[in-house]
Write a structure and sequence with these properties.
Thrombin, subunit H, PilZ domain-containing protein, cyclic-di-GMP binding, PilZ_domain
């Protein structure tokens, strides 16, 4: 089977965004990497990645529903409600898997090619990490194997002395698309809020 991969020699530029996520990561060895690759690309859904799988399915389902919603609105409405309920259940699974109470929200610089995050642990370039990323507020859980690009001392002074940059080494292409869509949606939301604030400021003059 041909695995979908984002390899370290893929240097395409991606739009980056400062964001808040739930994050869990750990260094892995070659044996663990082999097992993780099978898990990442296995089409049997697990509890952590089920929300991402459902989100991808919802996109396909939305296009199908739009094609017959005019002729069968009640059926389309029912299917949309079922889809929403399944997505809500999937989010609960991600919360349980991440033990959300133990994982505080982390400020990261996120892109579809990788991310930069603060860490209590120092890593070396080319270290391989298992990374579990939950996008907020949808609680979309994404599992990837990442490669450390650099690890530098942080000047934040927040008890997280290291700033770590990683790129995705192995990730589902559909998950990378979800990250890209999340970033675009967040940026559009921030632009809308900025315009509203500017309009309110203008009206107050």
């Amino acid at each position: 089977m041909e695995h979908e991969t984002i390899k370290s020699d893929d240097r395409r530029e991606y739009f980056r965004l400062d964001d808040e996520v739930l994050l869990d990561y750990a260094r892995v060895d070659e044996t663990q990497i082999a097992a993780l690759r099978e898990r990442i690309f296995d089409r049997i859904v697990d509890r952590f990645t089920v929300a991402a799988t459902f989100a991808t399915s919802s996109r396909t389902m939305s296009r199908i529903l739009s094609s017959f919603s005019a002729g069968q609105p009640d059926l389309a409405r029912y299917l949309k409600m079922m889809d929403q309920k399944l997505n809500q259940l999937a989010r609960l699974f991600v919360i349980e898997e991440m033990n959300a109470g133990e994982h505080s929200v982390t400020q990261v610089n996120l892109s579809a090619g990788g991310l930069v995050f603060p860490s209590t642990t120092e890593f070396s370039p080319d270290d391989m990490l298992q990374l579990r990323l939950a996008l907020l507020p949808a609680m979309t859980g994404i599992l990837a194997i990442v490669r450390v690009i650099y690890c530098e001392r942080s000047a934040q002074g927040n008890g997280l002395p290291w700033q770590v940059a990683v790129e995705y080494e192995y990730i589902r292409e559909s998950d990378r698309d979800l990250i890209a869509s999340h970033i675009m949606a967040r940026e559009a939301e921030r632009l809308r809020e900025r315009r509203e604030q500017e309009q309110e400021g203008g009206n107050g003059e």
